[in-house]
Amino acid sequence: MNEDYVENLRHRTSKYLAAMKALEKKADKIAELCDAQVGVICYPTDNLTPLFYGRPSLRKVVEKYLSDDLGDNLASLNQLLDTIDLDNLSKNELRGLRDSLRKLHEELAQAKAKLAQNQD
Questions:
Q1: Which of 10, 17, 85, 86 has its CA 20 to 30 A from that of 79?
Q2: Which three-class secondary structure state does DSSP give residue 42?
Q3: CB 52 within 8 A of CB 24
């Protein structure tokens, strides 16, 4: 993608929504062609609605991710988190990230508990 940053918020919002639709279509195509489970999480920087998308569902993709090898998956997630430049995020972006991480943490804890129950 070789496009310049869109300064106008209305135009940027429109571009974001179009790009998210395209991303969902690509995720569906990958899932269909490759018989893969696909999960996409996208946090925009302009307080737009984040994208949480999965096929068959984001929850199932996360559960599969956790059940495969929790240790390796957490290590790769930590490596990803290390690449985020927290110093350059605004307070609103940090709050949004914090709230989203709390929600994800709760969902992961529920998924782990459900997996533990299923294994018993």
A1: 17
A2: strand
A3: no
Q: DSSP for 100-117? A: HHHHHHHHHHHHHHHHHH
Q: What is the pTM of this model?
A: 0.52
115, 63 contact by CB (below 8 A): yes
Distance CA 65, CA 11 (A): 36
**Residue pLDDT, tens place only, 52-77:** 888 888 888 877 777 765 556 566 66
DSSP structural state of residue 35 = T
Q: How far apart are CA 38 and CA 64, in angstroms?
A: 10
Alpha-helix runs per DSSP H in the chain: 9-34, 58-68, 70-82, 91-119
Answer for the pair 68, 37: CB distance below 8 angstroms, yes or no.
no
Residue 71, token pair as written in the block: 């240790």
